[in-house]
Amino acid sequence: MGDITGFLKYKREDFSKDSVEMRKQHWREFIHPLPVEDLRQQAARCMDCGTPFCHWGCPLANLVPDWNDLVYRGRWKEAYERLIETNNFPEITGRICPAPCEYSCVLGITKDAVTIRNIELSIIEKAFEEGWVKPKPPVKRTGKSVAVIGSGPAGLACADQLNKAGHSVTVFEKSESIGGILSLGIPDFKLEKKIIERRVNILKEEGIVFKTRCRIGVDISIRYVQKEFDASVLAGGAEDARDLKVSGRELQGVYQAMDYLRQQNRINVGVRVKPKEQITAKDKNVIVLGGGDTGADCIGTANRQGAKSVKQFEILPRPPLTRAVDNPWPEWAFIYKEGSSHEEGVDQDYCILTKSLGGEKKKLKKLHGVRLEYGFKDPVTSRASMKEVPGSKFEVDCDLLILAMGFMGPFKKGLVDNLNIQLDERGNVRTDEKYMTSANGVFAAGDMRRGQSLIVWAIHEGRSAAEGVNEYLVK
């Protein structure tokens, strides 16, 4: 490394952010990258470990020490070239990935981890500014064609890799926007849509064809796709949201998180929504059920819409502030993490079970809950028994309830059912080691195959499926 004592001399410094009050007034990104000299110091904190566990922690096996050293030396173009060897969309992961690499950073054992994600984002944005990111269509086409169904991160990564291999790729997307969950499921304040459009435009110039508002299994039969293309890849995501099965679920004011987030994203790009159909938190007591990233996105959205109050209930106990004994480094850290949306205002509560919902004139007014207590974890299943705490029932005002409780796997009706392909025990699409389903020539990738997961896993899945498809087409 250029500065072998950098990790001793420099402290971790994150990107600065707009004040809470300022960022709640708009839907734009609110981070401010560091000056070049400060970034060099942050890169100098990388220890050039003999065994860089950041590789192990990142599903993409990003060459982190390499591009940290190059940033320190001012060799930005080479850093960019190293970065894109393993990651198709660093401008996206650099914004929304929860950075498992940082939880595996060796420096993180005793000090604050290296700001890997911030350096990654700085490299790719520098590359765009300097004009290094250019369309590079394949020199030669193979004559083989592939249909990729779904344009989320797994589908886009798969399409990009297959196109680079010379195959003709068509991506089918059921919504009006390319990007899947990136475009409609993630708020602009975390990922502005111009970032996705910038990358999609490059993919188009490289020869990938995109077809929107096209639901395979509804608008076009999967049999037609199988006939017209030499191979196809299912990358439709895990969209079957877990529902709340309690009395009062039918009341007006209860919505799934993705319905809530998609509508606001559409409004932000100018789509007009009738007032009666608009899901708004303005002047309402909002409760978000679910403590994950989707729940946090709903909190940030509710605050920007002008909520009267925002609460977040989680059925599980609050994670510890430091790693538990059974969660050692370099594993993903199951610890309490406060995101930017939490900073903007929310009352969090844990071990809460929703028992029923109450309302007036068919409109939601109350949430009735009870507190839970958990026993010891089962050493085999890692699950703990739970029971209601006697005398802990309560009710709280609630005009808008957002369900952000995770997903049960892909939708089965239409595409999956029509293919009659095998599913695993969790209801996801089963594949072999080459990512092929039980239907010959049909592959699967991303959350549709793996289940709800991180964006870096989605990109890894897309790249891995592309390897399987390419081997199938050229054999």
What does this structure look like?
The chain is α/β, with parallel strands linked by helices. It folds into three domains: 6-130, Fumarate Reductase Iron-sulfur Protein, Chain B, domain 2 (Orthogonal Bundle), CATH 1.10.1060; 145-239 and 408-474, FAD/NAD(P)-binding domain, CATH 3.50.50.60; 254-403, 3-Layer(bba) Sandwich (FAD/NAD(P)-binding domain), CATH 3.50.50.60. 33% of the residues lie in helices and 17% in strands. The protein is built from 19 helices and 16 strands. The strands form four sheets. Strands 5-4-3-6-16 form a five-stranded parallel β-sheet, sandwiched between helices. A five-stranded parallel β-sheet has the order 7-15-8-9-10. Helix 3 (36-44) packs across helix 5, helix 5 (64-72) packs antiparallel against helix 6 and helix 7 (90-96) runs antiparallel to helix 9. It is globular. It starts with 5 loop residues before the first helix and ends with a helix. The mean pLDDT is 96.
Structure classification: alpha/beta
Beta content comes to 15-25%
Name given to the CATH architecture of the largest domain: 3-Layer(bba) Sandwich
Unreliable sequence segments: none
Query: In which order are the strands of the major sheet placed?
Result: 5-4-3-6-16
